[in-house]
Amino acid sequence: MGRAGRTDRGRRRRAAHLGRLGAAPPGSDRLRGATHPRHDLDEVIHAPVRLSIMAALSGAERIDFRFLRDTIEVSDSLLSKHIVTLENAGYVNVDKAFVGKRAKTWLSLTEQGRAAFARYTDVLRQITEGATRA
């Protein structure tokens, strides 16, 4: 299967996942008339571990898997699971290579991932600034 097939499959999985959550993707018509900014939060990023991954990756060009695992204090399997979700959403690139005899996994945000994280943090800012005015 080509890379395009995996990307389409990832989009379908994300849409199915959002449907199970009862969430609408940002900008969808499902929440027409909803005005609270929380409706614009990206459900893919919103999980605490995925938010931690996105935040860590946003501050670097790329990060080693083990460094990220230790930084956000999760197990290899949990980090891998969340990276797959972010990769399927098109937010994270995973590059694997050998350094000497050891396999290394490098993670980085895609342009789409950087844009999604910027939107997510903007929405959080709208929510928190609105709370201080209330």
UniProtKB/TrEMBL annotation:
Residues 49-127 form the Winged helix DNA-binding domain. Pfam families: HTH_34. Residues 1-36 are annotated as: Disordered. This is MarR family transcriptional regulator. It comes from Spongiactinospora gelatinilytica.
